[in-house]
Design goal:
- By secondary structure, the protein is mainly α.
- The chain has 46 helices and no strands.
- The longest helix has 28 residues, at 164-191.
- The chain is globular.
- The protein starts with a helix and ends with a helix.
- The model is unreliable at 674-698 and 992-1002 (pLDDT under 50).
Length: 1002
């Protein structure tokens, strides 16, 4: 192979455009795979070649060593080692990128040679004894540490002829030697009194090497004393060796200290499952950490410090130790052991300071977020104590800590004011938003500890924040502390029970008294969110409803209208019965907001839900009046669009907005008393063997009731909706939105919608004639479940049912012939979800409509073999229910009897590989259903598995017989059948050995 051609290709790759790079890269990859690469890689690594070419030679050598070592004859191994060492010597003084690749290649070579028991010792001795004489001692040590560090990492990816288990075993044996070599080297350097700048790279590599070897060898924690002490000495030296004017460590000192701390993290997490076994060692190490690292954290307890990364990893070390050995350290809360109690106290004090790190996260400091998990961990440890006396004592002991942390968290959660905001970028703001969410979660843990005491602490904080706000009335940037205090109240709203707490009463008064116009809108936004969060509490204390309404109405005309509409939605839902005295003024406020033109689309939609809630509790006459002034404009705009036949994008957006607003109104407006309402789940009112709501109403004495307002709206606008549907029939988003609105009306009206049943069915049939919208299928299913047993409506329901079947059959046949069933995966999922509901609740349909049940089952079998999750789960769910219900319907039974063997054949194909392994559990239901309802046929059908090499050639006849025996035995134990199915699917895919190896290695 022409070396010059390779060299030109490499240089072209680094110096050419993107497209040419792609072509060149493919060619270079191809020649790297060739056997000739063993020869030309050395030729490329000549000192007179460009560095890019030398680097390509080095990575080619590494690639060949990693993947194709078997191509090197055994008798050539010694010569290869010598050649590799000579190359390392040649590049010992650079370029670094070439030397690094050669060091990694030597690591790979050592992995291949692990069957020789002393290979690591021999190579290590060669470097320690300076046998590569052309290089300085420092350089040889640097290379040695890089090689030792690379051995464990390369062992995970190298293709070697040595069994993987043997590689792990050998590395386990050598871990003590490797870490001991590094520790001896570090100790020797530290004992010399001063670390030279020229040696810092070696020291960093040596320290990293410890971390890579700690995952091997099962190093006992109580055997790590020397390692821990040397690492702490190293950190201490780097930090305190010489004071800097700005307090900032040099880059080398900082890297070395941080690396040493990260190794300590590895040490402490290596034996986390043996906490009590090493309890004395853990306490001893924690004392060392507190003594050596605590003073560093004290110095770094400031904002905008230059050693923030070091502080971060040190706090991480303490938290890792606590996570792994929490019981050992938390035992100090009430221990008689003075040392243990002191360790616990010092640790908690340190993590309080971590949470209270000066500055604002994340722009001034990065550490305070680390300790959030600790405060949950501590309260969880106390609450899980089995001894009630100990639990009570511990609880009392930690309460003062949590009271202090509560005040800290309020202070840390302050938003930036307008003066500080310029130094924040969008990433900072998003990070802080997540941080505030973590603070909110931590406040819930605080409440679990403090209970009612928390409200006292929050009340004090509220007083302090108001004093601060009023201290300088002209200062408009003093609002963040008050906003943060309100945020704390908001975060624990779910924990506050029905009692009339004076602290909450005071909060609601404060929220109404704040002069929001003087301060940032964010303060009003937080107040509005909090008012909504306490809706549940207000429903138990309704005399405070007026103040909440007043605040939320004020928010409707502000820039925080989104929070106001959310709050009103919650308030009118939770306090609907109590809303009547305030309903008309509130409706007027909603109308003004809707007509004001300042609300976003999402806010207008949400506000209509509130309007529906309020209208549900006012007089019928007032409902009609407000419908006219608030809802008519929506339909007037739709009418105008229809008349103008406007098909522009702007018109489409307005149509969807108006339909979504109407949909929200339909979902909440219901004049029946709550006890008379039908739930959203139609299965609560409709089921096989039970009369429908329509039949029950026919049997009961007629009670004159006003027409439901939603029905009045639909009666007046059905013509408009039909025309709208015709004009936009080919636009999926418009049709879906229209169907969802009508579905909401149906859900609320139930059988009251009967006067419009024919119109609604015609609308659905018109949609089916053009495009099957999932919402239309759901709505049709609801109509069938409600009205099928109504004699007057049965023919319409049969027609509707037939239309759904025929449309979907037609679509699936069309795409099946093109072998593109996946293109209609959504339609298939919706269709079989519909049929599952009908099969469960109204299986009589399949017999009376004379449905083609065989075709239904056949397409379900095809659907379950698709790669998409939705069709798999819904079709298998349908088949399971269909099989269980089929005994009650001859047509259904005939379909199962005729297709039983095919159902099992396709099921086995799915287990064999058609279906992703993550979803094979669902097929257990088919085995159970067939075994339960068709036991004798099932025994005959399952013999399909006896076919040779079916479903794959990986599974043996004995495995198949064992599986059949197990599933025939189980008729009801779903969990056990799922387990059998999972194992059989793994056998079919030859994945069992991998699973066993994975579990062993982990």
């Amino acid at each position: 192979m022409d070396i010059r051609q390779i060299e030109e290709a490499v240089l072209s790759f680094y110096r050419s455009g993107t497209q040419q790079q792609e072509d060149t890269h493919q060619w270079l990859q191809k020649i790297q795979e060739s056997p000739q690469a063993w020869s030309f890689c050395w030729q490329l690594m000549q000192l007179d070649r460009p560095s890019e070419v030398q680097f390509f030679g080095a990575i080619t050598l590494h690639s060949k060593l990693t993947k194709h070592w078997a191509e090197v004859p055994k008798e050539a191994h010694g010569e290869f080692k010598q050649k590799l060492l000579e190359s390392i010597v040649m590049f010992g003084n650079g370029p670094k990128i070439v030397l690094s690749q050669l060091c990694i290649s030597l690591s790979v070579f050592i992995v291949h040679m692990l069957e020789h028991p002393t290979v690591i010792e021999e190579v290590t001795g060669m470097f320690l004894n300076e046998q590569l004489g052309a290089l300085s001692k420092t350089c040889q040590l640097e290379i040695l540490m890089s090689v030792l560090e690379g051995i464990p990492d390369e062992a995970d990816s190298v293709h070697t002829q040595i069994p993987r288990a043997m590689v792990r075993e050998e590395l386990n044996k050598k871990a003590g030697f490797a870490t001991g070599t590094v520790i001896n080297y570090l100790s020797e350097k530290l004992n010399a009194g001063r670390l030279e700048e020229s040696e810092m790279t070696v020291l960093i590599n040596a320290t990293k090497c410890l971390a890579t070897w700690l995952k091997y060898g099962n190093v006992r924690l109580d055997e790590c004393d020397t390692m821990v002490q040397v690492l702490l000495k190293l950190i201490h030296y780097c930090y305190w060796k010489e004071p800097k004017e700005d307090g900032c460590l040099s880059q080398e000192d900082s890297d070395l200290a941080e690396t040493a701390v990260k190794v300590l993290v590895k040490v402490m997490s290596s034996q986390n499952c043996n906490g009590y076994k090493y309890s004395a060692t853990v306490i001893r190490f924690m004392v060392l950490f507190l003594d050596v690292l605590g003073p560093i954290l004290d110095v770094e307890w400031k904002e905008n410090n230059e050693n923030e990364n070091l502080a971060f990893v040190i706090y991480t070390l303490f938290l890792t130790t606590l996570e792994c050995y929490s019981s050992v350290i938390f035992a100090g809360i009430l221990s008689d052991n003075e040392e243990l109690t002191k360790v616990y106290g010092r640790t908690v004090d340190l993590l309080v300071k971590c949470t209270d790190k000066p500055g604002t996260y994340p722009v001034d400091e990065s550490c305070s977020t680390l300790a959030m998990e600790f405060w949950y961990m501590l309260q969880d440890e106390v609450f899980s104590m089995p001894n009630d006396d100990h639990k009570t004592k511990c609880w009392d002991a930690i309460k003062p800590v949590y009271a202090h942390i509560l005040k800290v968290l309020i202070r840390k959660s302050q938003l930036p004011n307008d003066k500080a905001l310029p130094k924040w970028n969008s990433d900072d703001l998003e990070t802080f938003r997540c941080y505030r969410q973590d603070i909110g979660d931590t406040l819930l843990s605080c409440h679990d500890v403090l209970n009612d005491l928390m409200l006292d602490v929050l009340s004090e904080a509220l007083d302090e924040s108001i004093l601060y706000l009023n201290y300088d009335p002209q200062n408009t940037d003093s609002w963040p502390l008050l906003e943060a205090t309100i945020h704390a109240y908001c975060s624990i709203a779910q924990k506050i029970e029905y009692a009339e707490y004076p602290q909450i009463v005071k909060l609601l008064k404060v929220l109404n008294d704040i002069p929001y116009d003087k301060y940032s809108d964010k303060l009003l936004g937080m107040a509005l969110e909090t008012a909504g969060a306490y809706s549940d509490w207000i429903s138990d204390n309704p005399k405070y409803l007026p103040s909440a309404i007043e605040l939320l109405v004020k928010g409707l005309s502000s820039t925080q209208a989104s929070q106001a509409t959310l709050g009103l939605k919650d308030l009118t839902s939770e306090c609907q019965k109590e809303m009547a005295p305030f309903a008309l003024p509130l409706l007027d406020a909603c109308r003004a907001a809707l007509q004001g033109g300042h609300l976003k689309n999402s806010e207008m939609i949400r506000l209509m839900y509130t309007v529906g809630n309020i209208m549900s509790v006012i007089s019928y006459e007032n409902i009609i009046q407000y419908l006219d002034v608030m809802v008519s404009p929506c339909f007037a705009e739709l009418q105008m669009t229809v008349q103008n036949q406007d098909k522009s994008d702007a018109a489409k957006s307005r149509i969807i907005l108006r339909l979504e607003m109407i949909s929200k109104l339909f979902s909440s407006l219901n004049t029946r008393k709550p006890s008379e309402k039908d739930g959203d789940d139609l299965s609560a009112t409709v089921g096989r063997g039970q009369p429908t709501a329509a039949a029950a109403a026919a049997a009961a004495p007629p009670q004159p009731q006003p027409v439901q307002p939603i029905l009045l709206i639909l009666e007046k606008t059905m013509g408009l909706l039909k025309t709208l549907c015709e004009q936009w029939i080919h636009d999926e988003s418009v049709i879906e939105t229209l169907c969802k609105a009508l579905q909401q009306a149906l859900t609320n009206l139930m059988d009251d919608i009967k006067p419009l049943l024919n119109d609604m069915c015609c609308l659905i049939l018109h949609i089916f004639a053009n495009k099957c919208a999932p919402s239309a299928v759901e709505m049709a299913g609801n109509f069938i479940l409600i009205f099928y047993n109504d004699p007057q409506s049965r023919d319409s329901m049969k027609q509707l049912f037939n239309a759904i079947l025929e449309y979907n059959f037609g679509q699936m046949q069309q795409y099946d012939e093109q072998q593109k069933l996946s293109d209609v995966a959504d339609l298939i999922e919706t269709f079989y979800m519909f049929n599952t509901r009908i099969t469960k609740k109204m299986p009589v349909c399949y017999g009376e409509v004379q449905a083609d049940c065989t075709r239904l089952v056949e397409y379900a079998m095809k659907a379950m073999m698709l790669p998409e999750t939705g069709p798999i789960k819904k079709s298998v769910g349908f088949l399971t229910v269909f099989i269980k219900e089929s005994r009650n319907c001859p047509r259904m039974m005939s379909a199962v009897a005729g297709q039983g063997e095919n159902i099992l054949r396709n099921t086995f194909l799915c287990l064999g590989g058609y279906t992703p392994r993550a979803h094979v559990d669902v097929f257990a239901d088919i085995f159970l259903a067939l075994n339960y309802k068709y036991p004798s046929d099932y025994v005959r059908w399952i013999k399909v598995l006896e076919k040779p090499n079916f479903p794959t050639f990986f599974v043996s006849q004995a495995d198949k017989e064992q599986f059949v025996k197990k599933v025939l035995k189980e008729k009801v134990n779903r969990r056990l059948v799922q387990e059998h199915v999972r194992k059989f699917a793994a056998q079919c895919r030859n994945a069992v050995e991998w699973e066993i190896d994975f579990r062993t290695s982990s």
